[in-house]
Amino acid sequence: QETVKIAYIDPLSGGGASIGEIGLKTFQFLAEELNAKGGVLGKKVEIVAFDNKTNPQESLIQAQKAIDQGIRILTQGNGSSVAGALSDFVTKYNERNPGKEVLYFNYAAVDPVLTNDKCSFWHFRWDANSDIKMEALTNYMKTATAIKNVYLINQDYSFGHSVRTAAKSMLAAKRPDIKIVGDELHPLLKITDFAPYIAKIKASGADTVVTGNWGQDFALLLKAAADAGLKVSWYTYYAGGTGGPTAVKQANLNHQVFQVGEGIANLDNKPSQEFEKALRAKYDFSLFYPRAVNQMRMLAAAADKAKSIDPVKVALALEGMEFDVFNGGKGSMRKDDHQFFQPIYISSLGDRTEKEPFDEEKTGWGWKLIAKIDTAQTMLPTTCKMERPK
Amino acid sequence: MLELIVMSTLNGVLYGMLLFLMASGLTVIFSMLGVLNFAHASFYMLGAFFGFQISRWFGFWPALLIAPLLAGALGAAVERYGLRRVHKNGHVAELLFTFGLAFAIEEVVQIIWGKSPVDFRVPSSLDFPAFTIFSTNYPAYKMFMLLVSIVIFAVLLITLKKTRIGLIVQAALTHPHMVGHLGHNVGRIFMLVFGVGTALAAVAGVIAGPALVTQANMAGLLGPILFVVVVVGGLGSLPGAFAASLLIGLVQTFAVSMNGSLSGAFGPLSPDYAATWLADIWNVTIAQIAPIMPYVLLVLILIFRPMGLLGTRDT
Amino acid sequence: MLEVRDLHAYYGKSHILQGVDIKIDAGEVVSLLGRNGVGRSTTVKAIMGEVPPQGTILFKGSNIAGLPSYKIAHLGLGYVPEHRDIFPGLTVRQNLMLGIKDPRKPGKWRLEDMLQMFPNLAARADTAAGVMSGGEKQMLTICRTLMGDPELVMIDEPTEGLAPLIVHQVGDLLAEIARRGVAILLVEQKLSIAMRISHRLYVMGHGRIVFEGTPADLRDNDAIRKEWLEV
Amino acid sequence: MSTAIELRGVEKSFGNTSVIRNVNLAVAQGERHALIGPNGAGKSTLFNLISGYMLPTTGSILLRDEVVSGLAPYQINRRGLSRSFQVTNVFANMSVWENLRCAVLWATGHRYAFWKNVDRLPEVRERTARILEDINLTARRDVPAGLLTYAEQRALEIGITIAGGADVILLDEPTAGMSHAETERAVALIRRLTEGRTLLIVEHDMSVVFGLADKISVLVYGQIIASGVPEEIRGNPKVREAYLGEEAA
Amino acid sequence: MTETTSSVAPPYPTAAEKLKFYGLWVGAAVVLLLLPKLFSSGGSLTTFSLIGISIIFSLSYNILLGQTGMLSFGHAVYYGLGGFLVIHAINIIGANKLPIPLPLVPLIGGLTGLLFAVLLGWVSTQRSGTAFAMISLGVAELVASSALILRTFFGGEAGISANRTKVFRLFDWNFGPQIQIYYLVAAWTLIAVIAMYALTRTPLGRMCNAVRDNPERVQFVGYDPHVVRYLAFCFSGFFAGIAGALAAINFEIANSAYLGAVQSGTVLFATYIGGVGFFIGPIVGAIFVTILSLGLSDLTQVWQLYFGLIFIAVVLFAPGGITGLLMMHRPLLKAGTFGKVLPSYLIAFVPTLAMLIGLILGTEIIVYYAVHSGDDSHIKAFGVPFDAANRYVWAMAAILLVGGYWVARKTWTFVGHAWDDATSVAREKGIAA
Ligand SMILES: Nc1ncnc2c1ncn2[C@@H]1O[C@H](COP(=O)(O)OP(=O)(O)OP(=O)(O)O)[C@@H](O)[C@H]1O
Ligand SMILES: Nc1ncnc2c1ncn2[C@@H]1O[C@H](COP(=O)(O)OP(=O)(O)OP(=O)(O)O)[C@@H](O)[C@H]1O
Ligand SMILES: CC(C)C[C@H](N)C(=O)O
Ligand SMILES: [Mg+2]
Ligand SMILES: [Mg+2]
Q: What PANTHER family does UniProt report for this protein, alphabetically (chain D) (predicted)?
């Protein structure tokens, strides 16, 4: 019996390994789920892991290796820097090897450029791009009158830059009274102690910090804040990542850390809660990538629709596809730029009520829903001009 | 402003002392055995993980004692069964040996403790703010780190000055046979030095583990900077390493605290250059280049004062 | 005191020592003569364990063949190698200090005595030994080994590169060492000095001892001198 | 007759110990000049100064009437002065042949050439072969220098020194550690190789000194206390007291 | 005079030897030509291309380490800058339709490497030894970090990319398919290897060796060791630039990792493991390390552990590198005594292999329990499936490991004896070992 192989190309060693491994386990869990339901078009799904060490060039070597093994679907998420290179590679590869096309499913790299100027027919993104998230976040911040002085701190690479530029322009438009008192960029995954940055934030008199930091760059930032007793509100993209909740609890920032994302465990939605329970029963982490669930389920749906697992046909089937997303509500894969649109949620971490059954990292604290932005409100325009196969 | 200066000085000194804590072992090994021990940071990591595990079982204070002993024993074994055999093939061979070792140690740590950070906490007896300035808490644990660094500095300095071991090792670097003929057991001394050096790294690990992250990639983040400390300070000079650690800690911390850039000083660049490399240079802030400061220092030192800050030997 | 029986040694596979027998009694001065390359240095190296020895080496009754050299040294055997091997980075004083095996047990040679005996060394006590002149280095090595208080010293070509006057002085030093009850095994090139201070002489040829006797015996034995020593 | 090497008021001190004190010395072209003196007198230091390895504290050094103090060793070498070392100083991992060839390359004008095949330079081959013959190491041509016996290494050291064809040669204890037989051979070799050139030699072996030198200078505590033809020196009481001792008389 | 010369100097190569020598290169060219026919899968073409690049890079590194005795921690700087410039060049050539065909583009990389070596080399090569090593480390970190700051030129973390098919075409080769890239790399590899070999045979090449052995003495035969080191550094930078250029053409991307410590470390590894003492050493090392780093991660999850252990083993047991190990046998082959050691090798091989299998098995079982406990215990390591939860498998691993070690130790002493015999016979026949 034939299998549908998906190459998982993400860091499994080095600084990014901790999140890369969680992603891998999530996908393996999802593959098992699909297989239990009979797989894709009756074929078993298998995730094959490739270690890219968060390095664009290494990713291309691994992608090439995957293709050489006959794999036609690649998935990657950790790092927009890698994503850009991979998308470019896949586009060129498909152009030069007609009939042997491969698809690239992006589950987490959110640099907007990937579905704008540098969009590609072969690239599909299930995560909301950075601009969409910032739009949602600033819409909420607009209403929080307590915010006066905002400090931006981000990782020095494409994603961090897009968070920073979007934050600046959107805040300026929506809340011109807010002052940006700091705008910091720091090296990606290289800082061991954020104390100097915290001192700077403190000295700036900020009451709010906006950051796209992820992985250890978030956990360590919060840890340093906790040590120094910095009390501000945090608007984040990835506070839920490994070590994040623990650090938030340590800093005792009860419902002062906000996160924008496409879902949380504590949504009042039966199926996703069931899924969360099953995942936690097996692994000691919570679902960090709800979009990966959508991605895998939509792959199965698209293959069904196309009655084939041929990449080109699957791609065409995915275009414009409507889908009931994992956390509830409607989503759709926009044909113009292959960006998936779905409801976006803003949540905060802290004490739970009985409405929030799940805690995070055994801290006792959990995510509480603050605001929901419907799919329609997240539709930002795109500049993508896609070259499609004839 | 004053607040930032005071805080940065504090943070800088602290970071510097942490560097020293790690670099002291490397100085001992590097200067005495001439081994560029690329696995030094790995022993630092082992110290942190051993410390984590032992403090789970017996508490932090026993861990602070046992973990370095374990790591030191491991280091001694590495010297005895590995490095010693490689020694005669020269420094490059030794260096690659430790390279390989660093790889292996990292993977072993990942196998045992996983790739995600472990929850290594500051002991509750030290988990309180030592003092508060400018409404910022200064954790007692950091004061403790400072104290340990200084104690280690003092103890090492005294032992190095007062014992003959330093002399014997230095002599053995050039003429190991001769040292043996004079009745000194060179092998045992090398083993001891390596063991002590790695144990020092492990002390740093146990102490820094709870303050920073304890994760399988923690070694890679600190490796090269330790060499910078040792070389800038001057090979073989412990006070030099101390001074260099402080210097680097302060320089880096202050650089982070500064927002100055050419565009800040001379006004924004004309938009004609917006998409050129000139714009990059124009707009980069001092804070952004903070991480490369130590290397600038290294290159400058090697060009203008090759023996390092307080060193006597030419590298 | 030292008795070497049927000593063999190899460099790789080349058989350098082919059964050397030597005996030295306490307090005795014995010279080992021979042409370049016959294996005199190798003999002392083998005794010290720098070259793996095969055979029996009894020192004060116990077999030391195969022991690591630091253990041999602790038994009271001193060695001054041919290439001087001073520690160039250390000062003269530090070099001398390293000769002391156990700082808690002072021996009969003291740092002060040494410096007094060799004013050259005293003047440079705190300079790096590496920059000393060739002759100064030679003296330093001998002194350094004496600091370890050996009962027998093996000295390999101590007068190489020394000025005639100093050669004489070294001869005096050796005599002084012997007077203080230390046995000496002297490996020499210069017949004159060996003849002057030795009680007994060995002549080596092709990895074996070819002659044994007193200086007077050797003086009388032209054949041996012609065949195994100089021209 | 012009001077090959001339030292004018040369002094050298390390820190505050002065090792060479006001040395004036002239070695005539084509002369074989021996420098003797007690250990630590500063003979090797003087060589280091002349060859550019060290800088004199004061004073000047002239090579064929041109001031060379302050030049780097390789610059002085290019002006025709070559020296050997008291401690053997060869290219240990290279074969005897290559050792000698390296010493020939600059002098034959090939310098840093990276476009010529070194094996196909006839004049280099010829010269190297000649020197190899001269120092009697033909049989050891392909042996790495580090594996030669001590005496062979000393011979190679001399070979390297003269290979460049310099016409001023400085030899620092060339026969140290050699047996009598070997010493004699070495002396003959040196005599032959330095025919027509200027030689400045340091030796402790008086038979070598008296057998070879046209002129002798005696250095004691960094000062030249006597200078003259061998007979004068032998008879000089100051020299006897400071250096020769009674024996050598 | 000439007569003495011919009897004393090493003889000129005979016609037969010359034939053998040139035949070797021609043979290499033919092999390179035919290789894709023998291994035709896409994977092997990529692998071969990477090996070719790595060969040039390692050989260029050995100009420093092996030939001139300079340990560099920053050789990737010249490789990376070559790569970056080539990416820009391809973009410029494509955009302006300049008549420069792709096969000439690596030269741009080489010249870039050369230029930066010329600029940075003079101060770096002032000293040798540890000082040089540390300066190279500092310079490398500086350049690599600056690459992240100068985003317009270096493209930040993501790097910059290009499309190699958009440049001027010759003979209708668009260099899209990997096979065309393979031939491009192969041709350049051959050229670069020949050039670097030739370099070792020049006066400069010889003086590099002299500087490595004894920089002090070099000064007294008329050479300035600093200049020698500097020139070697420049050549090394040039060839590293070519390697970087080929890598850039192969991947069509250059990012800051090209310049980084990992890249510099890998080339040091490859060169040393191959053997710095031989010209072909780095070639062997490049092949070995490339295959290892590409293949090992497919065979086992904890590849990094094996990677580390393999290096430790090579450093411990093969001080002259892999080539050194092989070359040790040359005198035996010449003397015809290789047969004496062969049987002992075969005897030693079996228990050693058993020991290694036991080690691997044990490691994988531990990994299974430490990392994947709960998953299916039927796992695969190095392509061999087994059941990690099976007690018999455990026992087997233990027996193989302990027993293998015990027996292997004995057999290795055999090897030692056989080796001694064989070499002494060889020596008696006058063949130096
Ligand atoms: N490390 C070595 N490897 C191989 N052969 C060696 C080594 N050391 C010495 N030999 C050889 O061993 C023989 C004996 O050497 P040894 O040094 O004992 O001679 P010696 O009698 O002390 O002469 P010398 O007057 O040169 O000091 C010589 O032929 C020498 O070439
Ligand atoms: N770099 C230096 N620093 C300090 N002192 C030095 C230095 N170089 C040499 N000396 C000292 O200068 C003096 C002269 O040394 P030099 O080597 O010239 O003596 P020499 O005449 O060659 O003696 P020998 O005949 O023993 O070789 C010695 O006392 C030596 O210790
Ligand atoms: C895994 C994610 C945190 C990656 C990040 N969003 C990026 O675009 O680079
Ligand atoms: Mg000898
Ligand atoms: Mg001298």
A: CONSERVED COMPONENT OF ABC TRANSPORTER FOR NATURAL AMINO ACIDS, CONSERVED COMPONENT OF ABC TRANSPORTER FOR NATURAL AMINO ACIDS-RELATED
